[in-house]
Amino acid sequence: MKKARRITDIPCLHDEILGVIFSRLPVKTLLRLKSLCESYCDLISSPWFITLHRKRFSSDPDNHCIFVQTGKINRLIRIQNPSNLIKLNEPCTTNYTVIGSINGLICLVTSIASRQLICLWNPSINQYKMFPMHNENPQETRKCDISMGFGYEKGSDDYKVIRVLRYKTGWPLTIVEIYSTNSDSWKEVKYDSRVKLNTCFCNVIVEGLTYWIAKDLDGSTVLASFVWSIEKFFIIPLPEEVITKSQTFAATNYHGSFQLLAYSSPSKFKACVDVWEIELDISAEDYEWKKKNTFHTDFGFSMHWGLTGGDIVVENAPNMPFLFNVTTKQTWEMGINPILTLSNYTESLVSINGFRRVRNQLKRRRKASNPVRARLS
After folding, report:
1. Most buried one in 15, 51, 124, 154, CB count within 10 A?
2. Is 117 helix (H, G, I), strand (E, B) or coil?
3. Pfam families recorded for this chain (predicted)?
């Protein structure tokens, strides 16, 4: 069989016009176009096109997905077709924990041969990078709580991972370490000791900021926002109404803005959810909470994970988790149970230095599940 000849040039439109047209195409199609001719490959690989495509896809709710971790077989779900569960070619085993997702990159923590590693993975382009912790067993003689976050610094186009180590005794009580994909290295930064992070991983990621639900020195619940550009925590009190009236609340990234879902139940089978939005002025260290919406449901639910393109992922135990649209009141069963973690995801062409291709894990799993194929191999 003759080897297929690569086309080196195709008469086409101006790159800017062609880029606008191509930016509407899914990643899978763009990857095929890259192999069609050199000019297409150069265009699709260029930083300005990758940014244009990412912004267009993230701004369109029809392109939003949910990455769902179940503990066994993880899936990607398209919001517009929640019954279609997309299998993923994962870079490691399902024994990992997701820190968060931003701009098409998923950040997770895994252990291989008793060594804890961080993995940055873009399932759309089937590439990943793994790197070790800054100090895998920091000061083993002292017990500590560890919390991690993932974020993006727009000014330098730098994806970063933060690890906060809070020790029970000794000095210093808290150490903050930051990994930069641009420098491919870790460094320590100063920490504001006025806040204690409540969770092992950040609660929500909004471009340029990473948020935790936390406690201040007085024990009050606050929002701790880490600003990557200045490498500093910004402490924000929650609205008084949320503290006094809500049974529970969840932070979420809704179309690129931070929102807080405050849940209260006036009766056993009805729920009321307030949607709060915050406007931040980092330079002036000022903020303003606004209640954007309140909606009611005719069912009770045991857990909610936040808005995803206008929907809430709801677990109405012991039933199957489903999507609930706050505007149309429609529900769609997701077909996955249980859910361990859930992250917003939008496909992108984003790549970082050191990325390499993920081996075909799906093919290996199919072969392992087929005794005949396994013996032949």
Report:
1. 124
2. strand
3. F-box (PF00646), FBA_1 (PF07734)
Residue 301 CA to its chain's centroid (Å) = 24
* DSSP reduced 3-state for 82: strand
22-27 long-range contacts (CB < 8 A, ≥24 apart) are: 22/49, 22/53, 23/49, 23/52, 23/53, 23/56, 24/56, 26/347, 27/124, 27/125, 27/347, 27/348, 27/349
Instruction: Kindly give the interhelix angle for 15-22 and 47-59, rounded to the nearest 10 degrees.
Output: 40
The Cα–Cα gap between 157 and 300 comes to: 43
Cα–Cα nearest to 257, from 232, 293, 233, 221: 293
pLDDT digits (tens, 9 = 90+) for 246-290: 778 888 887 778 888 888 776 656 778 888 999 888 877 889 999
Alpha-carbon span 109 to 126, nearest angstrom: 18
- The half-sphere exposure of 308 on its side-chain side, counting CA atoms within 13 A, is 25
Alpha-carbon 284 to chain mean position? 28
Give the closest residue to 231 by CA, choosing from 351, 149, 132, 131: 149
Q: Is 364 helix (H, G, I), strand (E, B) or coil?
A: helix
pTM above 0.70, yes or no: yes
DSSP string, 194-225: TEEE-SSB-SEEETTEEEEEEEETTS-EEEEE
For 306: left if phi > 0, alpha if psi spans -120 to 50, otherwise beta; the answer is left
Do residues 118 and 179 lie in contact, with contact meaning Cβ atoms separated by under 8 Å?
yes
